[in-house]
Write a structure and sequence with these properties.
The chain has 334 residues and is α/β, with parallel strands linked by helices. The chain has 2 domains: 144 residues, NAD(P)-binding Rossmann-like Domain (Rossmann fold, 3-Layer(aba) Sandwich), CATH 3.40.50.720; 171 residues, Dihydrodipicolinate Reductase, domain 2 (2-Layer Sandwich), CATH 3.30.360. Helices cover 36% and strands 25% of the residues. The strands form 3 sheets. Strands 12-11-7-10-9-8-15 form a 7-stranded mixed β-sheet, covered by helices on one side. The chain has a 6-stranded parallel β-sheet with strand order 3-2-1-4-5-6, sandwiched between helices. A hairpin with a 2-residue loop joins strand 13 and strand 14. Helix 4 runs parallel beside helix 5, helix 5 packs antiparallel against helix 10 and helix 7 crosses helix 10. It is globular. The mean pLDDT is 97. Keywords: NAD, Oxidoreductase. It catalyses: myo-inositol + NAD(+) = scyllo-inosose + NADH + H(+). Involved in the oxidation of myo-inositol (MI) to 2-keto-myo-inositol (2KMI or 2-inosose).
């Protein structure tokens, strides 16, 4: 049986998922789309021989849609995720689950009222082979207790519409979730350091930023967010323990050797760098939904990341630490 997926927001990310689902991933097919841009919905529906709905509500309610994939802009997520929950349909929501922790709480409340875990959040780095190997080494005690983690998240450029709070909510959120998963701990406080600004930025941006985060056990995590680095999409991570360290390897596509020396060709975007992770993540979701079970990151993970992001956005405006305010974890998500 093929899982019939309805997609809300078939833009760049959504169309990349459609390509994977239709060409690489087994067991699913996108049969319907909805978009605020009606022309785009009609265009994408024609490309996949599917149906274009006039609204996300109509798509979610359709008996021809088994499960929902949300790839729209973050502020639109809450209403559509809750509608999918109320319809009793599994939903895969790209990050962020919602823009604020309060909005995520409302999603969790709806899911708990439904009595069934239906929401998976698209934190794809958990499915990246290199991060998974790093976690396996750490969990096996190969480097002792974690002391600190160094991260960098560099993009070639961002559009003028990118705002500095997006450096937290849309960019650093990846490291925030990945570090929670890697270390098995929550964050308790965050601060933001502001280095010298690059000249390759729009005037309204502070770029780069450095987030400093602290976990419940005192592990110090730093995350350099540099979204106009010019040279490529460069993701770095080094976990330092008491008896060793482990870091991501170079993420080059190829290494070239000639009279100019040896050099790497870097990935330029997240689809290149994390292509394998995206495939593994969505394949696992489709397989699980077909068996009527939840998999992957939960609404709680979306909420926890949003709570840290809320504190991070506050820290943009102040000097010093901002505490992360979080609810106790419900048994529902244990």
């Amino acid at each position: 049986m093929t899982l019939r997926i309805g997609m809300i927001g078939p833009g760049g990310m959504g169309q990349a998922h459609i390509h994977r689902i239709h060409s690489v991933i087994a067991g699913g097919r996108v049969v319907a789309v909805a978009d605020l841009n009606a022309d785009n919905a009609v265009k994408v529906a024609g490309m996949i021989d599917g149906q274009a709905f006039g609204s996300s509500a109509e798509l979610i309610a359709s008996p021809d849609v088994d499960a929902v994939m949300i790839c729209s802009h973050g502020p639109a997520h809450e209403a559509d995720v809750i509608a999918a929950i109320e319809a009793g349909k599994y939903v895969f929501c790209e990050k962020p689950l919602a823009p604020t922790a309060d909005a995520c709480q409302r999603i969790m409340a709806a899911e708990q009222h439904a009595g069934k875990r239906l929401v998976t959040v698209g934190f794809m780095r958990r499915f990246d082979p290199s991060y998974q190997e790093m976690k396996a080494l750490y969990d096996a005690g190969e480097i002792g207790e974690a002391l600190m983690v160094h991260n960098a998240h560099r993009n070639p450029t961002v559009p003028e519409s990118y705002t500095w709070d997006m450096a937290i909510n849309d960019t650093a959120i990846h490291e925030i979730d990945t570090m929670r998963w890697l270390l098995g701990e929550e964050f308790t406080r965050v601060r933001v350091d502001k280095p010298k600004r690059t000249s390759h930025r729009f005037p309204h941006l502070q770029d780069p930023l450095i987030l400093i985060l602290e976990t419940t056990s005192g592990v110090r995590v730093d995350d350099e967010v540099f979204v106009n680095c010019q040279y490529g999409y460069d993701i770095q991570c080094e976990l330092v323990g008491e008896t060793g360290a482990v870091r991501l390897g170079d993420q080059e596509l190829v290494q070239r050797a000639d009279l100019q020396g040896r050099r790497n060709r870097l990935t330029m975007d997240h689809n290149q760098r994390f292509g394998t992770a995206f495939v593994r993540e969505v394949q696992e979701w489709i397989t699980a939904v077909a068996k009527d079970r939840h998999t992957g990151s939960s609404s709680w993970d979306g909420y926890a990341a949003a709570a840290v992001c809320d504190a991070g956005v506050q820290a943009l405006e102040v000097d010093g630490w901002v505490d992360v305010e979080m609810l106790p974890k419900p048994e529902f998500y244990a």
